[in-house]
Amino acid sequence: MRRKALELVTALLLTLVAGVFWGTWFSLSRSMHVLSPDIFITIGKQIMENVAGTMRILMPSSVIGLVVLLIGSWKTKTRYFYCILTALVFFLAALLITLAVEVPIDNQIRTWTAATVPADWEDIRDRREQYHTLRTFLSLGCVAFFTLAILNKRNRLKRTNK
């Protein structure tokens, strides 16, 4: 019963993280290139303010859930284990992009104003958006593999109960 509860909580956390990434990518990131510097800075700062605190909780909690589930399935090495492992790898890659690329760029953007925007701001914006796209699809892959793990486990249980 504890594992099912952990799977449910982890699924919710992973979905929330992927939803934040997907939502901003789908609704905004693909059109950032048409925004003027002042609009880009204003929107960027507001998004950072809206998500930073929550993501500091959601992302580490997601990793903990995945790691605990992975450790719990270590001995069996079933498809469930390998799907959880793949989900964890995808999620850690998304987290690495967040910490190594996105956060440093966000910290730069936080200091900008329309009057102080650097000459290469478009290159910085484009780099951020490229990595945001990669991070978004890694997080969606994570959710997909996590879902496959749960479905595979359910199907295996049905086969063994027949």
Description of the structure:
With 162 residues, this protein is mostly helical. It has one domain (2-157). It is 83% helix and 0% strand. It is built from four helices and no strands. The protein has helices spanning 2-27, 37-72, 79-110, 121-161. Helix 1 (2-27) runs antiparallel to helix 2 (37-72), helix 2 runs antiparallel to helix 3 (79-110) and helix 3 (79-110) packs antiparallel against helix 4 (121-161). The longest helix is centred in the C-terminal third of the chain and has 41 residues, at 121-161. The protein is elongated and about 60 Å long. The model has no long low-confidence stretch (mean pLDDT 92).
Q: What would the principal axes of the Cα set say about the shape?
A: elongated
Please state roughly what percent of the residues sit in beta strands, choosing from under 5%, 5-15%, 15-25%, 25-35%, 35-45% or over 45%. under 5%
Q: Averaging pLDDT over every residue, what do you get?
A: 92
Name the poorly predicted regions: none
Number of discrete domains: 1
Can you count the beta strands? 0
Order of helices and strands: HHHH
